[in-house]
Amino acid sequence: MRTSVKDVYACGDCAEVYDFVHDDFRLTPLWPTAYVGGRIAGFNMCGVVKEYKWGTNMSSMHFFGLPVITAGISANDEGDYEILKVVDEKKKIYKKIVLRDNRMIGMIFMNKIDRAGIFLGLMRNGTDVSSFKEELLSDDFGLINLPERK
Ligand SMILES: Cc1cc2nc3c(=O)[nH]c(=O)nc-3n(C[C@H](O)[C@H](O)[C@H](O)COP(=O)(O)OP(=O)(O)OC[C@H]3O[C@@H](n4cnc5c(N)ncnc54)[C@H](O)[C@@H]3O)c2cc1C
Protein backbone atom coordinates (compact mmCIF):
# COMPACT_ATOMS: atom_id res chain seq x y z
CA MET A 1 0.00 0.00 0.00
CA ARG A 2 3.07 2.21 -0.12
CA THR A 3 2.96 4.63 -3.05
CA SER A 4 5.88 5.71 -5.20
CA VAL A 5 6.11 8.82 -3.02
CA LYS A 6 8.09 8.44 0.18
CA ASP A 7 5.94 8.20 3.33
CA VAL A 8 2.69 8.34 1.37
CA TYR A 9 0.36 5.32 1.63
CA ALA A 10 -2.92 4.71 -0.16
CA CYS A 11 -5.86 2.35 0.21
CA GLY A 12 -9.53 2.09 -0.60
CA ASP A 13 -11.19 3.45 -3.70
CA CYS A 14 -8.25 5.66 -4.63
CA ALA A 15 -5.71 2.81 -4.85
CA GLU A 16 -5.09 0.04 -7.35
CA VAL A 17 -4.45 -3.22 -5.52
CA TYR A 18 -3.28 -6.71 -6.42
CA ASP A 19 -6.05 -8.94 -7.77
CA PHE A 20 -5.22 -12.62 -7.37
CA VAL A 21 -7.55 -13.71 -10.19
CA HIS A 22 -6.18 -11.31 -12.78
CA ASP A 23 -2.65 -11.48 -11.37
CA ASP A 24 -2.49 -7.76 -11.91
CA PHE A 25 -3.07 -4.46 -10.15
CA ARG A 26 -6.49 -2.87 -10.58
CA LEU A 27 -9.19 -0.88 -8.88
CA THR A 28 -11.42 -3.03 -6.70
CA PRO A 29 -13.73 -0.43 -5.18
CA LEU A 30 -15.27 -2.48 -2.38
CA TRP A 31 -15.59 -1.95 1.33
CA PRO A 32 -13.60 -5.09 2.36
CA THR A 33 -10.78 -4.09 0.01
CA ALA A 34 -10.64 -0.67 1.67
CA TYR A 35 -10.66 -2.25 5.13
CA VAL A 36 -7.94 -4.81 4.46
CA GLY A 37 -5.88 -2.30 2.48
CA GLY A 38 -6.12 0.20 5.33
CA ARG A 39 -4.94 -2.41 7.79
CA ILE A 40 -1.96 -3.35 5.63
CA ALA A 41 -1.11 0.33 5.09
CA GLY A 42 -1.27 0.85 8.86
CA PHE A 43 1.12 -2.03 9.54
CA ASN A 44 3.63 -0.74 7.00
CA MET A 45 3.40 2.81 8.32
CA CYS A 46 4.37 1.38 11.73
CA GLY A 47 7.33 -0.49 10.27
CA VAL A 48 5.70 -3.96 10.17
CA VAL A 49 6.17 -5.08 6.58
CA LYS A 50 3.05 -6.69 5.16
CA GLU A 51 1.86 -7.21 1.61
CA TYR A 52 -1.66 -6.97 0.25
CA LYS A 53 -2.49 -10.19 -1.62
CA TRP A 54 -6.03 -10.51 -0.57
CA GLY A 55 -8.64 -9.43 -3.05
CA THR A 56 -10.57 -9.76 -6.23
CA ASN A 57 -13.95 -8.52 -7.38
CA MET A 58 -16.77 -9.94 -5.31
CA SER A 59 -20.35 -8.96 -4.67
CA SER A 60 -23.28 -10.25 -2.71
CA MET A 61 -26.75 -8.86 -3.26
CA HIS A 62 -30.45 -9.57 -3.44
CA PHE A 63 -32.31 -9.42 -6.74
CA PHE A 64 -36.08 -9.63 -6.34
CA GLY A 65 -35.64 -11.68 -3.16
CA LEU A 66 -33.01 -13.97 -4.65
CA PRO A 67 -29.60 -14.00 -2.94
CA VAL A 68 -26.71 -13.76 -5.41
CA ILE A 69 -22.97 -14.07 -4.85
CA THR A 70 -20.31 -13.50 -7.47
CA ALA A 71 -16.52 -13.39 -7.42
CA GLY A 72 -13.72 -13.16 -9.93
CA ILE A 73 -14.30 -13.56 -13.64
CA SER A 74 -17.85 -14.36 -14.72
CA ALA A 75 -16.77 -15.10 -18.36
CA ASN A 76 -18.83 -15.59 -21.46
CA ASP A 77 -19.21 -19.15 -22.61
CA GLU A 78 -16.44 -18.62 -25.14
CA GLY A 79 -12.72 -18.25 -24.59
CA ASP A 80 -10.00 -19.86 -22.65
CA TYR A 81 -12.32 -21.02 -19.89
CA GLU A 82 -14.04 -24.16 -18.75
CA ILE A 83 -17.54 -23.47 -17.47
CA LEU A 84 -19.43 -25.67 -15.02
CA LYS A 85 -23.08 -24.80 -14.68
CA VAL A 86 -26.27 -25.84 -12.93
CA VAL A 87 -29.58 -24.28 -13.90
CA ASP A 88 -32.71 -25.31 -12.02
CA GLU A 89 -35.54 -23.08 -13.18
CA LYS A 90 -38.07 -24.68 -10.85
CA LYS A 91 -36.00 -23.93 -7.74
CA LYS A 92 -34.65 -20.69 -9.28
CA ILE A 93 -31.11 -21.91 -8.73
CA TYR A 94 -28.21 -20.91 -10.98
CA LYS A 95 -24.62 -21.87 -10.30
CA LYS A 96 -21.69 -21.17 -12.52
CA ILE A 97 -18.03 -21.89 -11.91
CA VAL A 98 -15.32 -20.62 -14.23
CA LEU A 99 -12.12 -22.64 -14.45
CA ARG A 100 -8.83 -22.07 -16.20
CA ASP A 101 -6.21 -24.84 -16.15
CA ASN A 102 -8.32 -26.67 -13.55
CA ARG A 103 -8.24 -23.70 -11.20
CA MET A 104 -11.25 -21.65 -10.15
CA ILE A 105 -11.14 -18.08 -11.39
CA GLY A 106 -14.78 -17.13 -11.01
CA MET A 107 -18.22 -18.01 -9.73
CA ILE A 108 -21.84 -16.90 -9.79
CA PHE A 109 -24.29 -18.51 -7.37
CA MET A 110 -27.95 -17.60 -7.25
CA ASN A 111 -30.46 -18.76 -4.64
CA LYS A 112 -28.03 -21.39 -3.33
CA ILE A 113 -25.08 -19.48 -2.01
CA ASP A 114 -23.95 -21.74 0.83
CA ARG A 115 -20.25 -22.29 1.24
CA ALA A 116 -19.24 -19.46 -1.03
CA GLY A 117 -16.32 -18.93 1.34
CA ILE A 118 -14.96 -22.38 0.57
CA PHE A 119 -15.10 -21.61 -3.15
CA LEU A 120 -13.40 -18.27 -2.63
CA GLY A 121 -10.69 -20.09 -0.69
CA LEU A 122 -10.15 -22.43 -3.64
CA MET A 123 -9.84 -19.38 -5.90
CA ARG A 124 -7.49 -17.56 -3.59
CA ASN A 125 -5.24 -20.59 -3.06
CA GLY A 126 -5.20 -21.48 -6.78
CA THR A 127 -6.19 -25.03 -5.83
CA ASP A 128 -6.08 -27.61 -8.62
CA VAL A 129 -9.65 -28.96 -8.58
CA SER A 130 -9.20 -31.69 -11.19
CA SER A 131 -9.54 -34.52 -8.64
CA PHE A 132 -12.93 -33.26 -7.37
CA LYS A 133 -14.22 -31.18 -10.27
CA GLU A 134 -17.35 -33.29 -10.73
CA GLU A 135 -18.35 -32.66 -7.13
CA LEU A 136 -17.96 -28.87 -7.18
CA LEU A 137 -21.57 -28.24 -8.11
CA SER A 138 -23.11 -31.05 -6.12
CA ASP A 139 -25.71 -29.97 -3.57
CA ASP A 140 -23.66 -31.06 -0.57
CA PHE A 141 -20.20 -29.93 -1.67
CA GLY A 142 -18.10 -28.94 1.33
CA LEU A 143 -14.74 -29.23 3.04
CA ILE A 144 -15.15 -33.02 3.13
CA ASN A 145 -14.75 -33.11 -0.67
CA LEU A 146 -11.34 -31.47 -0.61
CA PRO A 147 -8.26 -33.68 -0.85
CA GLU A 148 -6.27 -34.12 2.32
CA ARG A 149 -3.53 -31.59 2.81
CA LYS A 150 -0.12 -33.23 2.37
C1 LIG B 1 -23.93 3.60 -3.66
C2 LIG B 1 -22.77 2.72 -3.28
C3 LIG B 1 -23.01 1.41 -2.92
C4 LIG B 1 -21.95 0.58 -2.54
N1 LIG B 1 -22.20 -0.72 -2.17
C5 LIG B 1 -21.20 -1.49 -1.78
C6 LIG B 1 -21.43 -2.82 -1.33
O1 LIG B 1 -22.55 -3.32 -1.31
N2 LIG B 1 -20.38 -3.57 -0.93
C7 LIG B 1 -19.11 -3.07 -0.92
O2 LIG B 1 -18.18 -3.79 -0.54
N3 LIG B 1 -18.85 -1.82 -1.34
C8 LIG B 1 -19.85 -1.01 -1.76
N4 LIG B 1 -19.58 0.27 -2.20
C9 LIG B 1 -18.20 0.72 -2.27
C10 LIG B 1 -17.65 1.13 -0.89
O3 LIG B 1 -18.53 2.04 -0.28
C11 LIG B 1 -16.29 1.77 -1.11
O4 LIG B 1 -15.45 0.88 -1.82
C12 LIG B 1 -15.61 2.10 0.23
O5 LIG B 1 -16.45 2.92 0.99
C13 LIG B 1 -14.28 2.78 -0.04
O6 LIG B 1 -13.75 3.26 1.14
P1 LIG B 1 -12.78 4.51 1.12
O7 LIG B 1 -12.34 4.69 2.54
O8 LIG B 1 -11.74 4.35 0.06
O9 LIG B 1 -13.64 5.74 0.62
P2 LIG B 1 -14.92 6.40 1.30
O10 LIG B 1 -15.72 5.41 2.08
O11 LIG B 1 -15.59 7.15 0.19
O12 LIG B 1 -14.29 7.40 2.34
C14 LIG B 1 -13.65 8.58 1.93
C15 LIG B 1 -13.87 9.62 3.02
O13 LIG B 1 -13.06 10.74 2.75
C16 LIG B 1 -13.81 11.90 3.01
N5 LIG B 1 -13.21 12.98 2.24
C17 LIG B 1 -13.29 13.24 0.94
N6 LIG B 1 -12.58 14.31 0.61
C18 LIG B 1 -12.04 14.77 1.76
C19 LIG B 1 -11.20 15.88 2.07
N7 LIG B 1 -10.77 16.76 1.16
N8 LIG B 1 -10.83 16.03 3.35
C20 LIG B 1 -11.24 15.17 4.31
N9 LIG B 1 -12.04 14.13 4.07
C21 LIG B 1 -12.43 13.93 2.80
C22 LIG B 1 -15.22 11.54 2.57
O14 LIG B 1 -16.16 12.39 3.18
C23 LIG B 1 -15.31 10.11 3.08
O15 LIG B 1 -15.77 10.02 4.41
C24 LIG B 1 -20.63 1.10 -2.57
C25 LIG B 1 -20.41 2.44 -2.94
C26 LIG B 1 -21.47 3.23 -3.30
C27 LIG B 1 -21.18 4.68 -3.69
Automatic annotation (TrEMBL):
The keyword Hydrolase does not apply. It holds the Pfam family Rubredoxin_C. Its cofactor is FAD. The keyword Flavoprotein applies. It comes from the Archaea. Keywords: FAD, Flavoprotein. InterPro entries: FAD-bd_OxRdtase (IPR050260), FAD/NAD-bd_sf (IPR036188), FAD/NAD-linked_Rdtase_dimer_sf (IPR016156), Rubredoxin_C (IPR041575). Residues 60-126 form the NADH-rubredoxin oxidoreductase C-terminal domain. PANTHER family: NITRITE REDUCTASE [NAD(P)H] (PTHR43429:SF3), PYRIDINE NUCLEOTIDE-DISULFIDE OXIDOREDUCTASE DOMAIN-CONTAINING (PTHR43429). This is NADH-rubredoxin oxidoreductase C-terminal domain-containing protein. It comes from Methanoliparum thermophilum. The lineage of its organism: Archaea, Methanobacteriati, Methanobacteriota, Candidatus Methanoliparia, Candidatus Methanoliparales.
